[in-house]
Amino acid sequence: MVEIFDNIRKIYQFSPPCEELASYIEFFSESSPHATHAFAGNDCFTVKMFASLTPTFWINLGTSYYLTLGNKHFLVPGNHDILLTRDTIVERYNQPADHIFTVKFYPGALESVLGVDQSQMAGKLVPLQQVLPASLIMRIKVAGGFYERKKLLEDHFLDQLKTKRARTHYIELVTKTIAMYEGGSMKYNVDELAERLFMSSKTINRYFNKVVGITPKKYLSIMRCRTALTAFVANKQAFDPAVYGYHDMSHFYKEAIKFTGERMIDHGR
After folding, report:
1. Pair 143, 154: CB distance under 8 Å
2. What percentage of the chain's residues is helix, strand, coil (to nearest 5)?
3. DSSP helix/strand/coil, 165
4. What is the pLDDT of residue 70?
5. CATH topology of domain 168-267
6. Per-domain residue ranges for the chain?
7. What is the dihedral of CA 196, 197, 198, 200, to 10 degrees?
8. Which of 16, 108, 113, 253 is the most core-located residue (most Cβ within 10 A)?
9. In the chain, what is the straight-line distance between the N-terminal and C-terminal CA atoms, in Å?
């Protein structure tokens, strides 16, 4: 399965965060054994995900699994839990016994919630015990089900928000920049965004590097390509590359291949 091109969500159970955490967390999810079996039976398969710069917790409730992070290969043992910053292509090799609980954050939210600097973790497979207490991870593993696990983490995150002082001005600037980029149909460049936010492009670059770990130009290009590619896959006939700031289809294809490593012809184009 390949993210965007395939509906990878169909093999998971999903739930949004509570209202107080909605600005920081995109979703909680957990592997669904029933849905996975309906999709693949007893066969193994892979799930490929593209860069999104959305830090993600993977708490392992099942057996060992293999993971490719960029060009590095890992065996994640059954008792290991990890944090990924999602700054590169990730591919997981699924087996019938796999069972993973996931928390997906928005860019920069780790710092607001847990005081963790995302920019220092790029390209790494980070042991989750570096950012969560081992006792909490164990309670999550032995909890009675998906919603009990979710509640345990929500309570922990809310407590941390009350006690930790994050660099909120950095986070707020990054959030405003992303929102303005979306509101401008993803056509503004960094200089234009800086002008509209009444600050220098140098300042925006510094803030993005502090919060996300990459330049705003690179992050916004990822965001644009993900959005455009999703629209393209949903309705190829109606897709207009100019809506997303691409000169023509050739320009879009070139950027999509650079982003995904996938040729459009391999996905019905």
Report:
1. no
2. 50, 20, 35
3. coil
4. 87
5. Arc Repressor Mutant, subunit A (1.10.10)
6. 8-163, 168-267
7. -100
8. 108
9. 17
